[in-house]
Each structure stands twice: as structure tokens, then as C-alpha cells.
Design goal:
4 helices, alpha+beta, two-stranded antiparallel sheet
């Protein structure tokens, strides 16, 4: 977190709002998942697939670590069991 900003990958970004921990704003408007997904898809066209994989792994109690190349997620690695205190 830097000066009130938290930097996450796109696939990681929706978990805090989904769980009521943080909100995502765009031009002072709160985003719902549909708006966020549409915006994220402009940046990474395969965002829906990556998010579905990420969410499925999280639902199974795992912590996927995004692997990036040139700022884009190319896969997931370092999948570990999530400690209960870190699980959303």
C-alpha cells in the first residue's frame, strides 16, 4: 500500500470488494463486478478466463501467485494452502 493505494494484479483486484473489504472506484464511481470485468477486459482481453481460474483456485483454499511477463499475467505458480487468517 502506497499513500492510500493498493497495487494488485487485475485478477487479484476483485477479491477485496467481493468480500466487502475494499471498494474499487473509477472516476469517483463505485464499480460493480460487471463494470470492473468490462474495464479489466479492455486491458487484458482474457481477463474473464484468468479470473475464473484464479477464483476457482481460491475457492479450493489455495493461494495462486500470478506470473507476469511484460506486465501481463501468463499463468499462476506457487500455489499454497491459504492460512485461515488470510483466506477471504
Amino acid at each position: 500500500m502506497d499513500e492510500g493505494h493498493l497495487q494488485l494484479s487485475l485478477v487479484e483486484s476483485w477479491l477485496p470488494p467481493e468480500n466487502g473489504i475494499l471498494a474499487i472506484e473509477h472516476r469517483d464511481d463505485l464499480m460493480d463486478f460487471t463494470g470492473f470485468s468490462n474495464y479489466a477486459s479492455l486491458i487484458e482481453s482474457d481477463f474473464p478466463l484468468k479470473y475464473a481460474v484464479y477464483q476457482e483456485l481460491r475457492n479450493k483454499g489455495l493461494v495462486p501467485r500470478p506470473v507476469t511477463s511484460s506486465g501481463r499475467i501468463t499463468g499462476f505458480t506457487g500455489i499454497l494452502k491459504a492460512p485461515k487468517e488470510l483466506a477471504f
